[in-house]
Amino acid sequence: MITLQEIEQTYHFKYPTLYYQLWEDGMLDIRWQEGWWKNIFPELKKNPPLLLFRDQFTALDDAEEIVNLIEDYKSQRGIKAEYLLVPFARECAGDVCFFYNREKPEQPPVIVKDWYDFDSAEILADNLQNFIFYGMLSMVHSIYTKAPICLGDFYENIANLFRTHRPYLTEEQAEVIEKIYSRKLTTYKAIQVKKNNLLTALIHYQDYTALLSDEEFEELMKEYNPILVSEEERHSFLLE
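Now predict its structure.
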């Protein structure tokens, strides 16, 4: 059985310490199998692993699958030689990965989403801790009727999510999440003016029900999940 240390040695990188903690704590153990939604999900949501309720997000808990994906990136995606993508989750139409720049080994990996149908990736967070914060916040900002977080009791789900994820946040991040998760769902008016930025996909164009507004979500992202590259550098940087 392949270990994380063997993956590091093979591809010459180091996982973030927080990732090792998540792995060892069982926070990546999704136990995906036939009948998962009926037989496994009801048990998992009592003690949610990593971002369990994030729509179409599945943490990777199989080291062999991780290796296969790394090899696919090298052979099929044409990624620049100085870059390394190490996936840790699958998500709708792409993989969520640690992104390493071999020319800047002193820099910790940022978190990117590698889109299957585009020759680019989008930076989601400067580090894994900020990505967890972003994921926990976005789940209660963009809510629809059949969203995983609405399966069963919404407030029980977010309380369980906060309990299992709090150890992986900063104290300040935890305070923000706890405050927002203690609110009641509210219907907000949609922003009418389209904004030209990378959060556009998360901005609503019709009235919506959530725990926070578009404006508050944007402000919290700027404060607690700042991405320290220019808008132009966030896209189209992966391929030759």
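The chain has two domains: 4-128+229-234, 130-224.
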